[in-house]
Amino acid sequence: MVLSQNEVHRYRDEGYLVVDEVFGPDEIEELRRACDDPRVQRDLASGGYQEKGVHLLEITAKHPAFRELAIDRRITERVAQLIGPDIQLQHSKLATKPPQIGAGEFRWHQDFAYFPHTNTDLVAVMVMLDDATPENGCMSVVRRSHRLGPLSHLIDGYFDSGCQEPAHWADSSRIVEVVPRAGGMSMHHCLTLHASPNNLSGRPRRGVVFQYRADDAFQLYSHLFADTGLQVRGERRGNVRFEAYTMRLPRRRDVDPNPATLYCQSGAEAHAAAPSR
């Protein structure tokens, strides 16, 4: 249920980690059945699942199996070794790549650009419901890219979903395919550059993603979700910790044209204010 010291060191050095055989076949089959729940399927269809693949956000609010997974100690105890004992959920999602060949590509990016916080103690965990393979569009990471700090995801001052500094993934020797098997999971730092290509397998590829944050990481900008601020381990202490870094806060056409208008909430405030969808 815990990471070895070698695994902790590897995460801190490389910016990512793969842990296989975390969940058993029966547990994974139960989660697959939850994915087939009518409400989940309806929301997937309305989000464009058939055409392009989607990240179905707020998955913990769609089915109780996913909320239980978010607080499962086999995940949270490992995350605690990386960011400390008091942990909140920043968001959750079902990351899908549909079986249509040629769908599901995601460009190189850092998660942190989507939701800047006062510090970078955020870890993304992806629990695989299907084996991740190069054929079905597994995630790739740039080793040690978390050491680069926040990179630009801006075009003319507006947020873009992809990183705008391609030199950082030009060296193919630094790119690693991340291939946990079904029942395993990947973990990566919020500054780790990552991407995934189209699904070429003709079969679906599903993973449940939880973005965890240290309790003292205060969100500076971007969306709040129904599960933002959910305490999954430890206590809500009301502290805010600042880390020295510099980045330009983006303007987002889908949020507010004024870059000075930010969502500055965390913890209970964020959870209470999160919109119901």
- Outline the biggest β-sheet: 7 strands, antiparallel
Give a count of the beta strands, DSSP E runs of length 2 or more.
Answer: 13
| Helix and strand run | HEHHEHHEEEEEEEEEEEH
Total number of helices: 6
Gross morphology? globular
The overall pLDDT, averaged over residues, is 89
Cα radius of gyration in angstroms: 18 Å
Percent in strands: 15-25%
Query: Structural class of the helix and strand makeup?
Result: alpha+beta
Helix content: 10-25%
Report how far apart the termini are: 34 Å
Pick out the low-confidence regions.
Answer: 257-277
Please, could you describe this protein's structure?
With 277 residues, the protein is an alpha+beta fold. It has 6 helices and 13 strands. The protein has helices at 5-14, 25-35, 38-46, 64-70, 73-83, 267-273, and strands at 16-19, 55-57, 87-97, 106-109, 122-128, 140-142, 154-155, 158-159, 175-177, 185-189, 194-196, 205-214, 230-233. The strands form 3 sheets. Strands 1, 2, 3, 5, 10, 12 and 13 form a 7-stranded antiparallel β-sheet that branches. It has a 4-stranded antiparallel β-sheet with strand order 4-11-6-9, with no helix packed on it. Strands 7-8 form a two-stranded antiparallel sheet. It is globular.
